[in-house]
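Hi R.,

As promised on Friday, here is the backbone we talked about, encoded as structure tokens. Could you run it through your design pipeline when you get a chance and send me back a sequence?
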């Protein structure tokens, strides 16, 4: 038994390095998408102290809107633009109808409000788009669907071009987001709200404007994530469950850390895939990907409650 845990998996890695690379690649792709979803949570929490439970359904809603518009005869890239308009309208509606009346209320009230947004979007989405699975318009968006075949160490490594596209686009989106937050006036305003709410408001930063902006950015992230996941697994309300894999990413990386969201997503994506292949399937019969990330995050929280990249809070009395 100890040999199966501590020796055999590493022997398998050494004997088949090409297969190990395949596992690492699959984990990297998943990890980048987890990190993207986690960024949506982090941005909204930093600017408003609201844990956005609705981020998962926003991924689904954005993907369904895109596919639904194209099914109505709208060209693919026009559908993308119109979906962004829909996500902006959604951001404005959430700020005006839900968040603005709740300013100053306890955090739990705002959290419950995002659960209400989730349930509304589920029902609204099912009424408009139906509950059946749909196919992402991958080829119509110009996303390649072929494979790149490599032969490292005389073995075999298959890279799906749609996964390569997802990694590149996600990386560019993260870079653009970091540049926006650090180099633009509105980006610095978002950071200021995250650092000190009262000080930011005292110098004239508009809370309502920032809320609309961060919810719209979260909508953009949701659309990109929905396209990437939809290209891999189809478009359905089951994507919401995948989106909640960002929760252990936040626990691991820290709820306020953009760097933590990125690194935490990559760590969980890669580690859960490696554990599934080399330990989960031989010893536990598989299906460990459904719980591994949560167990890993729980272990980290036992030793570092604020997460790996969260700031340690010291209260003086």
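Update: got your reply. Pasting your designed sequence below so it's all in one thread:
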């Amino acid at each position: 038994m100890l040999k199966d845990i501590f020796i055999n998996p590493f022997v398998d890695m050494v004997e088949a390095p090409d297969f190990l690379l395949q596992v690492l690649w699959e984990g990297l792709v998943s990890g980048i998408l987890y990190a993207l979803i986690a960024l949506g949570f982090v941005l909204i929490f930093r600017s408003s102290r609201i844990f956005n439970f609705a981020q998962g359904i926003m991924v689904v809603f954005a993907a369904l809107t895109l596919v639904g518009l194209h099914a109505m005869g709208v060209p693919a890239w026009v559908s993308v633009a119109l979906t962004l308009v829909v996500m902006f309208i959604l951001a404005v509606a959430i700020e005006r109808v839900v968040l603005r009346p709740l300013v100053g209320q306890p955090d739990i009230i705002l959290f419950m409000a995002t659960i209400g947004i989730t349930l509304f979007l589920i029902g609204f989405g099912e009424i408009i788009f139906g509950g059946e699975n749909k196919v992402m318009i991958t080829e119509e968006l110009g996303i390649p669907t072929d494979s790149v075949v490599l032969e490292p160490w005389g073995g075999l490594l298959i890279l799906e071009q749609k996964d390569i596209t997802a990694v590149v686009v996600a990386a560019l989106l993260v870079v653009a987001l970091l540049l926006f937050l650090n180099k633009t006036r509105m980006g610095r305003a978002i950071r200021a709200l995250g650092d000190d709410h009262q000080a930011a408001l005292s110098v004239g930063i508009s809370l309502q404007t920032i809320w609309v902006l961060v919810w719209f950015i979260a909508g953009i992230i949701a659309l990109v994530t929905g396209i990437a996941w939809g290209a891999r697994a189809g478009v359905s309300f089951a994507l919401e469950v995948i989106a909640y894999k960002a929760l252990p990413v936040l626990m691991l990386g820290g709820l306020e850390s953009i760097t933590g969201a990125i690194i935490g997503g990559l760590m969980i994506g890669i580690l859960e895939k490696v554990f599934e292949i080399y330990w989960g399937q031989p010893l536990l019969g598989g299906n460990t990907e459904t719980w591994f990330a949560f167990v890993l995050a729980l272990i980290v929280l036992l030793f570092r409650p604020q997460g790996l990249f969260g700031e340690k809070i010291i209260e003086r009395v």
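One thing I noticed while checking it: The chain has 14 helices and two strands.

Thanks again,
M.
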